[in-house]
Amino acid sequence: MTALSTTSPIAITDDEVRAALDQAVAQVRRNLPAFTYTAQNHSSVGNVYPPVANDQWTAGFWPGEIWLAFEHTGDKVFQYAAQIQVQSFLHRIENRIETDHHDMGFLYSPSCIAAWKLVGDEDGRKAALLAADQLIERFQPIGKFIQAWGRRDNPNEYRYIIDCLLNLPLLYWASAETGDEKYRDIALTHARTTLAHSVRPDNSTYHTFYMDPVTGEPVRGVTKQGYADDSFWARGQAWGIAGMAFSYRYEPLEQYRDTFEKLLSFYLERLPADLVPYWDLIFTEGSSEPRDSSSASIVACGLLEMADLVEGDDAVRYRDLARRMMKSLVDHYAVTDPSLSNGLVLHGTYSKKTPHNTCRGEGVDECVSWGDYYYMEALTRLARSWSSYW
Ligand code: GLY
How far apart are CA 142 and CA 375, in angstroms? Predict the structure, then answer.
C-alpha cells in the first residue's frame, strides 16, 4: 500500500524540468555576489539565508549548486565562483576548522570532487583527499563504524548515524583516485554495519545507533532530530533510502536493494497526498506540523540513482515516483518570488525541538541548504545523463 492515488501529483514533464532548472539557476546567479567569498547558513531565517563563515557541516551544498548551475549553462562565472569556494574548503581541511565530525562527504563531494571532475581543479582533488583521510580517522574498529560526532575516546559519543551513508562516496572516490583500498574497505564495512542495525523490524529507521565501546556489540537506537526515539524522523528515512541506493552502486548486494525497497515502502505509506513528508513520519495527512521538503528531494535523488542501477519495471516505477515528487516540489514549494527568499525551496525543517529529542531547534519551516542542493541535483538527473559528484 502506498499514499499514491489519483489525487497525487502527476509526473513532471521534461519542459517543466528545464523551466524549473532555469529558475533555480537564475536564483543561484542572483546569490553569487553575496555568497562567493562566504558560505550560506545551514538554513534560512525568515526564508533568507544569511552569509556565514565556512565552518558548518552544510557548507558544501551551496558550491554544489554553483557547479550544477555551471553544468546547466556552461557559464564560466559559475566555474570561477565555485573555484573560489574550493580555496576556502582547502583552507578549512588543511587547518581542520570544525572538521571533528563525519560530514566530510557532505562537505567535500559537491564542492571539491565536483571541481576536480568538472574542471580538473587540483586543489579540489587535494582537499577532498585530505577530507577522506580525516574521515577514516573516525573509524572505530570495535563495532566497525565511523563515529558521527565528538571525540573518539568519549563513550557517550560511541555511535554512528544513518545520514553517514551519504558521506561514504567520498571514500569510494578516494580509493579509486589513489588506488589505496583502505578508504573503500572502511566505507564498505560502515555500510554493512548500518544495514545490520539501523533498520527496525517495521522498516522504519533509527537516526543514531550506539555501539558498545568494549565489546563492539549493538546497544540501542535513539533519535537526535526526530520527534522521539520511537518515531520516524523523515530525513533519516530519506538518507536511508538514498544511502541504500549509493551502497548498492558501490557494492551490488541484494540486501541493499531489498532494504531500499522496504525503506521506500514505509516512507510512501506515510506521505501526505502531495508526496512531501511532514518532518517526522509519525505526522500524516492533515497534520499542522511543518513539512520537510528536503526529504522529498533526497528521496527523488535516491530513486533516480537506483533507477540507473536496475532495469525493467522497477526502474520505470522509481523514475515515475521521482517525477511525481519533483512535480509537487516545483509547483508548490519552489521559490518563485526572489524578493521573498534567496533560497530555492521553501518548507524544509532542519531540527525541530521536542520534549523527547536532543537537538537545538533551528531552521523550522525554512529553506535548508541541502534541500536546495538535492532539488537541483534531482532536476539535473531528470534533465540529462549526469555524472555524479557522489
Ligand atoms: N545530516 C543532518 C541532517 O540531515 O540534519
Answer: 37
